[in-house]
């Protein structure tokens, strides 16, 4: 999940089942089509580069193009769709090494402009060596987007405080899945991580490159890992920041969010308690936490009015979830809780612009902000349990230790009502060199998942940022040790001799 200007409320990570020699399950059909020459016309296509029509990209001198790819790689002569990419050219053509593709996470994150901020963390030497390629993955943004016409912005909701609220939520999730079948049923089977990895290789061919480098954040680490498994000989320098465990996608990845965010909530509560004279949320961490838990119960009794919005028990944890990913946003989270507490106490509250934007995403989505593309990827990648009772049992097991986020992390999603995936997920087990960056306090892709990916990619190195709550380290958290490690690798291909631990500057 990427944070920053993209509304820090989309979440998550990835999964897979490939061997080093080839593809398991149904995958050989798609890869076999390429071997028989079915993809040659896509690799040989001419790209028409144009201004991006985006203020920041155009100001940076970027150019954009649409890449034609098969909707179904098993039928490469069938229907095509387009994938939108951007390019920031290497600053020194004489030093240029190649291209670096990227993904900002989500899944469901649009990435055309991602490399604008990543580039800021790169040294001049690195910027001289790569054409930086942003991409809206298939089904997202400008790339034949999935728009299920959802009445809410995200499928990631809390089950609420009791069985009745869980059942209402389950009906909502079933409705979201049905809306996707009705509006985008022809696209859904093909909006998967494996197909996005295949798109990346078509982009490589269309750019006339032998190999590609890659920078991925959050779910983007899963996509990058899958690409290295499917196309190991096409992978150059790979950086995977805030990584997910490919063996825990999709529901297991969400379940890890419960404990991680309860821990972060405790950390934030202590911060807010130290500033009780300013925010008046409670003089101890226990009192601050108790206030938050009371707000969840209050929202269950009656949604809390904030301007034109009514914040209910299903989305209140999501509002908290966003700022918790970065300790530098503790003041922002505290302002959210102060506004919600005032409104719950009967005051008329007009939410701040930041809180209003989050509430609009949840309750008043536009075709551009509703995140049904996230469901398409997650539900298309891996099957999830279809029995609602299994979710309810998990929620109840975790209520005592995860009173705020347990019903969020273990809740049912539209994936329980989705058609089965057309391919098996990818097992990542390879020796492609890569640099993995992970913060020990990450609330979205927990530290243990970065360690697991490190084990799965045997020639990778792990750079640990210790005792920092942050998601998306290189791009968002200025740390000399981390940035030196990444920039050195991208500049000359030198991985650290051994795993490295970094501390706050």
From TrEMBL:
GO terms for molecular function: hydrolase activity. Pfam families: Abhydrolase_1, Abhydrolase_4. Residues 1-26 form the signal peptide. Gene3D superfamilies: alpha/beta hydrolase. InterPro entries: AB_hydrolase_1 (IPR000073), AB_hydrolase_fold (IPR029058), Pept_S33_TAP-like_C (IPR013595), Serine_prot/Carboxylest_S33 (IPR051601). Keywords: Hydrolase, Signal. Residues 101-265 form the AB hydrolase-1 domain. This is Alpha/beta hydrolase family protein. It comes from Saccharothrix australiensis.
């Amino acid at each position: 999940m990427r944070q920053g200007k993209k509304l820090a409320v989309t979440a998550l990570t990835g999964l897979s089942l490939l061997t080093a020699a080839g593809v398991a399950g149904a995958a050989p059909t798609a890869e076999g089509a390429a071997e028989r020459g079915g993809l040659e016309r896509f690799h040989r296509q001419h790209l028409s580069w144009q201004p991006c029509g985006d203020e920041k990209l155009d100001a940076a001198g970027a150019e954009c193009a649409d890449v034609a790819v098969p909707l179904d790689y098993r039928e490469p002569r069938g229907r095509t769709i387009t994938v939108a990419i951007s390019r920031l050219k290497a600053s020194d053509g004489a030093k240029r090494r190649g291209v670096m593709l990227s993904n900002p996470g989500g899944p469901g994150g649009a990435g055309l402009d991602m490399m604008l901020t990543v580039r800021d963390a790169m040294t001049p030497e690195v910027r001289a060596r790569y054409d930086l390629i942003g991409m809206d993955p298939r089904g997202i943004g400008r790339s034949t987007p999935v728009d299920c016409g959802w009445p809410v912005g995200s499928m990631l909701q809390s089950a609420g405080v009791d069985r009745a609220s869980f059942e209402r939520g389950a009906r909502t999730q079933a409705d979201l899945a049905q809306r996707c079948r009705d509006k985008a049923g022809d696209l859904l089977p093909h909006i998967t991580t494996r197909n996005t990895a295949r798109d990346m290789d078509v982009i490589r061919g269309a750019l006339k490159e032998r190999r590609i480098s890659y920078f991925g954040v959050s779910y983007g680490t899963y996509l990058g890992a899958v690409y290295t498994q499917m196309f190991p000989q096409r992978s150059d320098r790979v950086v995977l920041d805030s990584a997910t465990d490919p063996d825990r996608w999709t529901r297991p990845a969400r379940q890890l969010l419960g404990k991680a965010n309860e821990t972060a909530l405790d950390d934030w509560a202590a911060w807010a308690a130290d500033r009780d004279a300013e925010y008046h949320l409670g003089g101890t961490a226990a009192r601050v936490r108790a206030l938050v838990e009371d707000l969840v119960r209050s929202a269950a009794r009656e949604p809390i009015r904030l301007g034109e919005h009514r914040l209910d028990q299903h989305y209140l944890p999501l509002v908290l979830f966003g700022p918790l990913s970065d300790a530098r946003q503790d003041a922002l989270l505290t302002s959210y809780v102060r506004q919600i507490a005032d409104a719950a106490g009967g005051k008329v509250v007009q939410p701040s612009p930041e809180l209003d934007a989050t509430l609009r995403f949840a309750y008043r989505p536009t075709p551009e902000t509703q995140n049904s593309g996230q469901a398409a990827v997650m539900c298309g990648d891996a099957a999830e349990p279809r029995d609602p009772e299994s979710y309810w049992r998990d929620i109840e097991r975790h209520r005592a230790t995860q009173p705020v986020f347990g019903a969020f992390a273990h809740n049912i999603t539209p994936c329980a009502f989705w058609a089965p995936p057309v391919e098996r997920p990818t097992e990542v087990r390879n020796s492609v060199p890569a640099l993995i960056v992970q913060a020990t306090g990450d609330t979205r892709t927990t530290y243990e998942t970065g360690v697991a990916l490190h084990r799965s990619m045997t020639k990778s190195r792990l750079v640990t940022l210790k005792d920092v709550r942050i998601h998306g380290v290189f791009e968002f958290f200025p740390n000399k040790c981390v940035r030196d490690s990444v920039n050195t690798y991208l500049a000359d291909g030198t991985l650290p001799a051994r795993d490295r631990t970094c501390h706050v500057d």
